[in-house]
Amino acid sequence: MDSPTQNTSLQRLQNVEKRIVRVLELAGGVMDELANPTGPRKEFINNHCREFMKMIKDIQVTLRDEIKSACEYRPFEKCDYSSRISNEICCKKLEYVLSQLDAMKQTIDEYQGEDVHYSLE
Amino acid sequence: ISLDKLPVRALDAIEENGVERYPHELSYDEKRVSLIRRIDFAWALWQWQSMVENLQLAHQELSVIIDLINTVEANDAVTVAGMTRPKPLPNEVLSDLAVSAATKLQCYRHLGKYFKQSAKALEQQIAREARFYGALIRLQQNWKVKRQRSNEGFTIDLFDNSLYDSARPSSLSVIHIEHDSAGMLAINLPSNSCHSLHFGFLGDSQKESMSDDESVKETHLLLREVHQSIFNDQVFDMVNREAFNQSAGVNVTGIRENYLQLSIGQGTSLFISLVPSSKPNRISCEIYLQQIVHEHAFIKGKDRGSGLLGHFSLSLAHRIFSNRVLMKLENVVCRVPYLHLMTHPTWHSRTSSWTIFMKVPQSILHVEKSQFRTKVVVNDDRINVEGEGAPNVVGLFKRSSEDICSVNKYDCDLADLPVIILQQVASQVIRWLHEEALMVGIKTNRDFLCLTFELEQGETVSLVAHVDPEDIQGCISWWLVMEDGEDWKLQMDRKFLGHLSLDVLYSTLMDLVSLCG
């Protein structure tokens, strides 16, 4: 099953996709084994089929959970476009203040540079 | 011995007149056919004939069967009761089994290959889509991603219909999400859509060097730009709508595409435009306009009226005016070393406030009061000056903060402001000197800008302040004036002391005190 690190919905669904690929590979392996001219090995087929069924079950459980939780999701309930604009305005204010502070610092540096200049003379 | 054959040809006939008739010369094909005719096909003919007979018999049987089938098909009254296959021979059974087994094995092999190929293709598709959906989900955390019903594509909707109910959705509001050549998420914007875009468009050449993370951040940045640009469009729309309303207090003096020119108050002209290059000194106005539009967007209904633009233009007028006030104050303060200027935030867009501090040297008794304040407050374009006087001595001994200071308060206009400030400061200096003299027991007469000491025989000596805002060396200068009280018409001597610091003034005071004493 999913390890605790795969906690986002997208990751779980991507895992399902990987399992589907694995399931296809198992089916292919079983077919190849059945096509064996000397006859299929029973152990091989059993292992593959067991893993196949387990994967299918995992896929089914995960998909069921995800579909349930997807239905609970109401889109655009908390649209934050307005606060986004507020934040953009705040950013611009900060940039402006920073530019003012930089100009002040430059002025201070110039004054201190002048002091040094005069003291040398 | 070899003998050449004579080139003798057989004669066919000879006529009476001696003309020889030769037989007709055969062509190559004719010769061949005649040779073939001479071969004996008897043995083959018999087998051929038996095969032909067999086929004819089979043909007859098939015709009968077809006839029968057609009759059964056409005639509903007759149906097939049953059919039996002839019992297969053992070798037929075995060969059938072998064929079906071989077919089955081949089917399995095909299936196996098909499944494995599908697995590989699916794996590659999953990897491509994982990049796309991973990016899409990151963007979905910040933006409204919508699925299109028609073509299974996605769009991002940048329009916020909860706030700006009077605005129409901009043509920029719907951004189509596309795939680039590598299958990764990409958005493309038409070239002249955004007024304030600074970045270029997503192109393949840029993509090669960008990781998925950078690509998503770049897309996110673009969406922010477009989102802000839509808002800027709405701000500009609002200004346009209200500018033509007479009660807004502004006049429209010029219109161009994405450009509006306004005049506010007395002779202040400004423009609002949607071009990307915004002059730096207008940035704060731009920000403020954006802010008030955004704040007022929460007010529903029509009762906004023309309040926004009027308020904005008054704020702008105040800003311009207060900058001029500040310039005058700075000019004064930087020329008088014992003055300090402090700006106070008012958190109100139409009020500005400053305080000018004068620090006096500490003397023995005045432990609490060491500075005088002059407050300047500007509301819209009205200046109010509030000056603190000298401390009340009695109040000082009582150590109560009330009744300590007398305050002068008056309005003034911009042109007079420097003189007013300087006079206020100079009078504060005079008051301070007056107090210091009192401290050492000498009574002096205080006039507005003049401190007078009485000497013997009616002579007076005065310390007189002179203010001049245009004086580059210092706005406040001092004169010593000596008057002979008895004969004041004749004896008046004045000595220019210069632009004295407060310490020097104090020591000058003490000198005068010792003169009196």
TrEMBL record, chain A:
Name of the protein described by the UniProt record: Mediator of RNA polymerase II transcription subunit 11
Keyword terms:
Activator, Nucleus, Transcription, Transcription regulation
Q: How does it assemble?
A: Component of the Mediator complex.
Q: Which PANTHER family match?
A: MEDIATOR OF RNA POLYMERASE II TRANSCRIPTION SUBUNIT 11
Q: Pfam families in the record, alphabetically?
A: Med11
Free-text function comment from the UniProt entry: Component of the Mediator complex, a coactivator involved in the regulated transcription of nearly all RNA polymerase II-dependent genes. Mediator functions as a bridge to convey information from gene-specific regulatory proteins to the basal RNA polymerase II transcription machinery. Mediator is recruited to promoters by direct interactions with regulatory proteins and serves as a scaffold for the assembly of a functional pre-initiation complex with RNA polymerase II and the general transcription factors.
Query: What Gene Ontology terms describe where this protein resides (cellular component)?
Result: mediator complex
Location(s) in or outside the cell: Nucleus
Query: Organism source for this protein?
Result: Theobroma cacao
Question: Belongs to which family?
Answer: Belongs to the Mediator complex subunit 11 family.
- Does the record's keyword annotation contain Manganese? no
Q: Which residues cross the membrane?
A: none
Q: Which InterPro entries match?
A: Mediator_Med11
Q: A Gene Ontology MF term for this entry?
A: transcription coregulator activity
Q: Gene3D superfamilies, from UniProt?
A: 1.10.287.3490
Tell me where it mainly resides.
nucleus
Q: Which GO terms describe its biological process?
A: regulation of transcription by RNA polymerase II
UniProtKB/TrEMBL annotation, chain B:
Q: InterPro entries this protein is in? A: Mediator_Med17
One GO MF term on file is:
transcription coregulator activity
Task: Tell me where on the tree of life, at the top rank, the source sits.
Answer: Eukaryota
- A single BP term in Gene Ontology: regulation of transcription by RNA polymerase II
The portions of this protein that span the membrane are none
Task: Give the similarity note.
Answer: Belongs to the Mediator complex subunit 17 family.
Q: What is this protein called?
A: RNA polymerase II transcription mediator
Give the species: Theobroma cacao (Cacao)
